[in-house]
Amino acid sequence: MAKRRLVIAGAIAAAAALLISGCSSSDDSAGKRACMILPDSESSTRWENGDRPAMDSALTGAGFETDIQNAQGDTAKFATIADQMLTKGCGVMILVDYQGAGIQVAAKAKEAGIPVIAYDRPIEGADYYVSFDNESVGALQGQAILDGLAAAGKDPKTARVIYGQGDPTDGNAKMFYDGALSVLEPAGVKPIFSMAGTWDGAKAGTLFEQALTAVGGKVDAVLAPNDNNAANIITILDKAGLKVPVSGQDASPAGLQNVLLGKQTTTVWKPYTLIATAASDLAIALLNGETPSADKALADGTPYIAVTPNSVGPDQVAEVVASGDANYDEVCTAAVMAACEEFGVTA
């Protein structure tokens, strides 16, 4: 995988998605404020460490005020934050949905004439959806399982694969899962056990422990929906003395460590800078009174700006760290240092 091609492909997709024409904006302070609600701090480290600073920098750099808050995994808090923001005034609302809380917020914002951007997770009634190409993310996860099985000499048609998936209240979870199935089913993979969907890593570990018991401790691979789930699943595999192909996404420090150590086949890298650039460009256009359009749409017709994701194995971890999307000190701890040196990961 060419080093520059990974990042440039997504950047071009994000940039090409916006075909902008428009009119002048209001000059009142509320109309110049971008409001954003993040979902939690548990499902991924990216929300606070990546998306928040990237969005804030882009929007304030363009001369706009920002109000970015985190619902901390609480649907009631999500609604309260939204009401406070709407009372103060927003020129655009950027929402990362949490268990459907974004739907009512989107409806209230639109009643107030405020355009709504669904960020990374689809929201019914939003004016725009900005995310990575989620079915492609899932397809990369499915391919990781097939590649891992092939490396282990396992026939996919007879392999014992346990399936996990994200929280069913998150619209992206189905797209990830469908994308994985689009690769696994044609190869003849059939799950021996399907776990309930969750983004809660600890819960995923418990569910996997139960699944492993149910299948008699015999498993050839695990379809994990993200690095957080994968890390907890790998803890259970370690306790059982097992090392099998495991998928993931987010290129989190723990995910990258597990990839380097050979405990996770790949992670899907979704550079937050690319989605933040696409979303902030869209928000800036709306704040300037313009009417953007996109080159894709969801099934309900919502304009969809899709950014290209990348699969990361041990050979690509160095690129993720070099890009700034992962911190060297967090990835290359003492337990992982030898692997970092082997695969050329440097500060």
Keywords:
single chain, 347 residues, alpha/beta, Rossmann fold, 13 helices, 14% strand, globular
Task: Tell me what you see in this structure.
- The chain is an alpha/beta fold and 347 residues long.
- The protein folds into two domains: 172 residues, Response regulator (Rossmann fold), CATH 3.40.50; 113 residues, Rossmann fold (3-Layer(aba) Sandwich).
- It contains 13 helices and twelve strands.
- It has a seven-stranded mixed sheet with strand order 2-1-3-4-5-11-10, with helices on both faces.
- Helix 2 runs parallel beside helix 10 and helix 7 crosses helix 8.
**Could you describe the largest sheet, including whether it forms a barrel?**
7 strands, mixed
DSSP strand tally: 12
CATH fold-type name of the largest domain? Rossmann fold
Helicity, in percent?
40-55%
Shape: globular
